[in-house]
Amino acid sequence: MGLLGVFANIAAILTAVIAVWAYGRYLWERRQKRLRLEQYLRDEKAAGGNQGQRTLLHLVANLGMAESEIIDAAFRSKYVRRRVGVDDQGRADRLLLEYDSGGPEDDLPG
């Protein structure tokens, strides 16, 4: 009975350690995706054209991330602004994302 208790305690400790490691990895991957999105939008804005605004489809194709991952990263970012594109009749038809550091001097190409 004593040996079974020891194995049960070791299993409980290993389960907790693995759960903490998995959660940490999940948070790290989310952070990396957010940083990738911010860097891509920052580079696109510095390159000029269309004020650096990009559609979800464009970002999916160029970043290799799912729409849900891009939206999650965009809504968690302090620097990614969401804009709404409108059609000829004034109705919203697309979501545009752009980098906005908050300071105009930071957004100009060097």
What report would you give on this structure?
It is a single chain. With 110 residues, this protein is α+β, with helices and mostly antiparallel strands. Helix content is 58%, strand content 15%. It contains three helices and three strands, in the order H-E-H-H-E-E. It has helices spanning 2-47, 56-63, 67-76; strands at residues 54-55, 80-86, 92-99. Strands 1-3-2 form a three-stranded antiparallel beta sheet. A hairpin with a 5-residue loop joins strand 2 (80-86) and strand 3. Helix 1 (2-47) crosses helix 3. The longest helix has 46 residues, at 2-47. The mean pLDDT is 90.
Q: What is the chain-wise order of helices and strands?
A: HEHHEE
State the share of residues found in helices, binned by percent: 55-70%
Overall pLDDT level: 90
The fraction of residues in strands falls at 15-25%
- Give the structural class: alpha+beta
Silhouette: elongated
Residue stretches low in confidence (pLDDT < 50, at least 5 long) are: none
Query: Spatial order of the strands in the main sheet?
Result: 1-3-2
